[in-house]
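Input sequence (444 aa), recorded before submission:
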Amino acid sequence: MAVAAAGWAAEPLVWHSESQRVDADIRGWELPRLLEEIATVTGWQVWVDPEARHTVSIKFKGRPVDQALELLLGKLSYVRLSQTNGPPKLLVFRNSQQEAIQRVPPRNPKAAHRAQPIPNELIVRVQPGVDLDELAKRLGAKIVGRSDGLRAARLRFEDPAATEAARQQLLQDDTIVAVDPNFPVHSQPAPEALGLGSLPGLKLAPLKEGEGIIVALVDSAVQPQGTHLDEFLLPAINVVQGEPPPEEVPTHGTSMWETLLKGVAASKPPGGSSRVRVLPVDVYGGKPMTTTFEVAEGIYRALQAGAGIINLSLGSDGDTPFLHEVIQQGYKAGRVFVASAGNEPVTTPTFPAAYPEVIAVTAGDGRGGIAPYANRGEFVDVIAPGTSLIMFKGQVWQVAGTSPATAFISGVIAGTADAAGKNPLQAAVSVMKTLAPAAPDRPR
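Predicted structure, token format:
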């Protein structure tokens, strides 16, 4: 049985899993495309030296795996590593495997498909004075999420038919402000352990005098490190209650916190101090998925807590007016929203990044261009580094994608606002003028 479709020349790269033989019929592929295809057809975790360059045009059939890799990669070196708790790793590099620090995600054949809302749920917003519990009882629904501040509830019904019947009923009710779909928002990949010794310490000290800039990190839980960096953390807001984060593995939120602080440090003199503070807002509760309802509630609570910058290293293909209106309210109040464009090489919009009130960040490839795995749609505003190395429990971890690119930009905006005495919106305008836009001809 082949991992990809069998047949000579039917597919440019065919990996036969049972016989461990490879067929190839490739013409003029650059290295990013080649590695993306290898990751797709093998299921391996593929890592590459960001400075590696290679173009392949080759045809062969039935070659053993290692021989095939040598033919495909030319003068580049590679190492295959087995993992007890995961798929094999393929490291591709010029001189040393330590250079292979950029993750190459597999191609997602479903990337072009629009997200589907949760079929038996609705987000319902009501007029003042409406009892949400009574409303749910009348509709035969269960409240699985509530926002008293936004006068909204996430209602779950028995099945899609009951959901549609309730929606039609609600549209005729004058006490109902809006009825919106609710979309899933999946968690982002956790950092990868690199097996390296250590990193230079982040030379950024918390300055306690004066009022600082608050950056809300709407993400998974953040794990304090037991270092001076913990002083940059404010008490967390937990939108979703769940299991405590793991002790030995950093969460996505933790990696975004450290990456955000790198952005703050990049906007300060070496060894500088900062009044910036990070407000963790956990919208996952340790689960692999949340929804746009919880993301909107997390943003709302962050705004109420005084956050001037909202970092959203997450996203979905689903456009929910409920989420958009919360962002619009914050934007009108002078708050800055920064969101990731998505880790698929498509041009379709990702939300909330595609909303006009949001700075949409995609990941760079180390040469100033967009990384091969990253969204490149017209809604994208800016490119930032797509790889971040962090320290956790004395070990080096790497996180890659548009998520760390977003956190880094949020940190730069926050650090600029703090250093220049500007409000976040003024700082965002200043920072955006100094950064390379994702589309050079696009007005900013």
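Checked by second reader. The radius of gyration is 23 Å.
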